[in-house]
Amino acid sequence: MSEIKTALMSDIKACMKSGDKDRLAVLRLVSAAVKQREVDDRIDMTDPEMIIILDKMAKQRRESIEQFNKGGRDDLAAVEQKELEIIQAYLPKQLSEEEIQALIDTAVSDTGASEIRDMGKVMGVLKPQLQGRADMSAVSAKIKAKLSS
Q: For 95-110, what is the mean pLDDT?
């Protein structure tokens, strides 16, 4: 069993004992997504697969926060923000802007990318390195800006 999944199950038990219902609800959502994937694909989750699921859930929360803020629903945005913080606790440490930019620069030079149509090559190199450690839509925008200049 993956370390992340073990920590998740342990935290679910701790939340049940302490009565932390809000955190427990979010952890159960994550657990359900993991179990669904395990049943569908008939696999035991590894840490890289767990990171992909957690990253997807975090991305959904970020998008929801953005939409709720645009709609003036600060109450719902706050709920999503709390869920995002809980989910991010299970993701690897986020990279700094400088680290992300250095990886982008390296990937662009390694792939020989010079035009916007080379973006797929760059993303292909970066995705395994950045999955769960950076907002991939923000990374995509940075790559686009670099290749457009």
A: 91
